[in-house]
Amino acid sequence: MMVHSRVTELVRENKDVFTMKFDSSITAKPGQFLMIWVPGGKEIPMSLSNTSSPPSITFRTFGETTKTLSRLKIGDRVFYRGPYGNSYPEPSGKVAYVGGGTGVASLNAMILKYRGDVFVGARTRDDLFLIRDGYKIATDDGSLGFKGTVIDLFLPHLSEYDYVFVCGPEPMVKSFIDRVDRRTHSKVFFSLERLMKCGVGICDSCSINGYRVCKDGTIFSMDDVLKMTEFGVYKRSESGKMEFFTNGKR
Amino acid sequence: MASISTKVGNFSLDNPVILASGILDETSGSILRSIRSGAGAVVTKSIGMKERKGYPTPVISEISTGLLNAVGLSNPGIDNFIEEFKNFPEKKRTIVSIFGGSVEDFVTLARKVEGAGFDKIELNLSCPHVQGVGSEVGQDADLVESIITEIKERTNLHIWAKLTPNVTDIISLAKASEKADAYVLINTLRATGVEIYSRKFVLANIVGGYSGPGIKPVALRAVYDVYKETGKDIVGVGGITNWQDAIEFFLVGARAIQIGTALLYEDYPIYKKINNGITQYLDSEGFSGLDEIVGVMVNDGTLQGH
């Protein structure tokens, strides 16, 4: 059901990323998402970047809907339904977070609850957001931290961790999956991103080999992702047509 | 234990619970998941001649009595569909739903579906929210008759005609479709929804289709009316959420049922739950098979099935 809350804070994180807090009493767990609606415009899925009270979303502006959200004022209404999806499992032992792109938003809700080492990747230093002291940074152009991908930066350290949480664009997660030692003792979980329309597991837009990212996920264990033969090979366009990734191979 | 196998036309099903078109049946992986979760058969999302993105979001809105949707017939187009389903292992239990704007479209689609190794189709004559296809075609009895006649003549496909309830006289529509092997009753009801604080419509397309528990009495009435009048094989669909609902449809003439919106509430375990419930009902009421109860409330038990 569609509900609404009032915006209590809207912070610009970098050139195109914003964090919005709103006075909602929803109970959500890290990893869950909301379907955020701009009345008269679109409805889009957004991970909660903080699940305590007040909750927040952190989003990159890329279209009309996100631009409209970024221009809301304190006290304006924000419409949404949810929270939806499963959540990250509770970790124990030594924890690592590996994030790329807006995947950092979803991990942030977890980082606020469970301490761990955070590895973040971005194209350039200007694309980084929600960064705190001690984070290990990778940039494609080397403008900050390690020059290369966050996967390059993290994978040599995999065996040091009991729990690893990964969130980022599909090609990034795919390169993790392709290069990870599958016999690792570390428990690795992935939050996946796909085009979603309904958010509640019925429209089939976000399905990968019958796994619905919106309802069976968005968090999947490594075993599950390894069973997804479509993962990283092709995604679905709005019509449901298979769209192959440029580097996708079976 | 009572038998829950059933027959719709010459199509034999292990069980009568079928996934309706439009819910979790766009991708081959999800169709397989339904079959492996116990569906007797699956109807695909409706496929048209060309790729269609569908409507912008919001495409669904949950209401207390069901669901509003205006997905807008998003589909990859028949050629991309066939490409994806090339090596699909469950073609015999998959009914391909097709939609078009003309007799030619329907015939072309049907022939391509047959050429791809499927042997059953469902004609979407009833989507309530896309111009020029669906119920706009399906309200025209003459056009419906020619579509079915042509497909019958030019293919060997088993044909289900899914009719729209958004007409004053569903019986004449059913009679125009009588060359089909079975009727599927009903598609969603034309509907809309309003969000009062934004003062905006809840669906991007404004108008959509209403499904779920709230439409069950309408669907049941349509099945009853059409069965009483024609005696033909009917697949009942509309608001069926549990085994008790399914039994109601069998009693007024449905030989099988489809579920859609109920997956929102019960998810994949629903197939087994409904099938177990039907079996237990038949056992406890002293019936040995599902066919013994089909239509008994209409024909007083005198007109028993196949």
Structure, explained:
The complex is a heterodimer of chains A (250) and B (306). Chain A has 250 residues and is an alpha/beta fold. Chain A folds into two domains: 3-84, Elongation Factor Tu (Ef-tu), domain 3 (Beta Barrel); 95-244, Nucleotide-binding domain of ferredoxin-NADP reductase (FNR) module (Rossmann fold), CATH 3.40.50.80. Helices cover 15% and strands 33% of the residues of chain A. Chain A has five helices and 17 strands. Chain A has helices spanning 64-70, 103-111, 150-154, 170-179, 222-227, and strands at residues 3-12, 17-22, 33-37, 43-50, 56-60, 77-84, 95-100, 117-122, 136-139, 146-147, 163-167, 187-191, 207-208, 211-212, 219-221, 234-236, 242-244. In chain A, strands 10-9-8-7-11-12-15 form a seven-stranded mixed sheet. Chain A has a six-stranded antiparallel beta barrel with strand order 1-2-5-4-3-6. The radius of gyration of chain A is 17 Å and the shape is globular. With 306 residues, chain B is an alpha/beta fold. Chain B has a single domain, classed as Alpha-Beta Barrel (TIM Barrel). Helix content of chain B is 33%, strand content 20%. Chain B is built from eleven helices and 16 strands. Chain B has helices at 28-36, 78-84, 103-115, 135-138, 141-154, 170-176, 216-230, 243-251, 262-266, 270-284, 296-299; strands at 6-8, 11-13, 17-19, 41-43, 60-63, 66-69, 94-98, 120-124, 158-162, 182-185, 189-192, 194-195, 200-201, 207-211, 234-237, 254-259. In chain B, the strands form four sheets. An eight-stranded parallel barrel of chain B has the order 3-4-7-8-9-10-15-16, surrounded by six helices. In chain B, helix 3 runs parallel beside helix 5. Chain A binds chain B through residues 1-2, 4, 35, 37, 39-40, 42-44, 77, 79, 81, 197-198, 200-205, 207-212, 215, 230, 236-242, and chain B through 23-27, 29-30, 32-33, 45, 51-54, 56-62, 71, 74-77, 80, 83-84, 195, 197-200, 202, 204, 260-261, 263-264, 267.
